Amino acid sequence: MRTIIILNPKGGCGKSTIATNIASYFAMKGKKVALADCDPQGSSHDWLLARPDTCSTINGIVVENDRLKIPRNTDVLIIDTPAAIGDKRLGKYLRKAQSLIMPIIASPIDIRAAERFLSELFSFKGTINNKIKIATVANRVREDTLIAAKLEHYLGNVKLPNGKRLPFMTMLRSTKTIFVQQNVV
Ligand SMILES: Nc1ncnc2c1ncn2[C@@H]1O[C@H](COP(=O)(O)OP(=O)(O)OP(=O)(O)O)[C@@H](O)[C@H]1O
Ligand SMILES: [Mg+2]
User: Fold this and answer.
1) With CB atoms counted within 10 Å of each terminal CB, which end of the chain scores lower, N or C?
2) 172 CB less than 6 Å from ligand 1?
3) Does residue 107 fall inside a structural domain?
4) How far is CA 98 from CA 61, 76, 95, 107, in A?
5) C-alpha 104 to ligand 2 mean position (Å)
6) Could you count the other beta carbons within 10 Å of the beta carbon of residue 162?
7) CA of 12 to the centre of ligand 1 (A)
8) What is the pTM of this model?
9) Total structural domains within the chain
10) What is the pLDDT of residues 5-49, one digit of tens each?
11) CATH number of the domain bearing residue 103
């Protein structure tokens, strides 16, 4: 099973949006997908409930005390995490994942928060040992703005503790059609 965690303690950066879209993507590819919403706010869970039955199946996972009950034969587990996640929970989630996607909004406040969080993240043992593949996604980007260029430059140049470049996956535009039932944006 491949576990992908969507993480950034900064609120509203697009964790649930990206988690649900990635879950849809793998479900459409015919994978057995589970989506765990670890946020009491329940955005991903609400999205699943509103999803028509005709869409490819995504199993909503019950989270109890950060324990995840995963159905057998799950191919891909997507974990949507809450904002302001504390160190203890962060460590728990990091131990479960093989991949981590960190969405970051194109704003000065979000970029500074990302800088702080990434250095915290790199100091965690599991990530230092390169057990987790980390990648960033710029989200809600308005093209041809100064801040978009600043974020692109920053994310293109972050270094991992081993000196390699932290992968910067993509830039997602600010769009009205981000929360769709089935398709990747
Ligand atoms: N690329 C985008 N374009 C336009 N709106 C977006 C985009 N990505 C996310 N949003 C919107 O931004 C808001 C916050 O997104 P989302 O709930 O996914 O963030 P979050 O990181 O999960 O928030 P929280 O920290 O509260 O869990 C939502 O209203 C969502 O629809
Ligand atoms: Mg969320």
Assistant:
1) N
2) yes
3) yes
4) 18, 11, 8, 28
5) 13
6) 9
7) 5
8) 0.93
9) 1
10) 999 999 999 999 999 999 999 999 999 999 999 999 999 999 999
11) 3.40.50.300
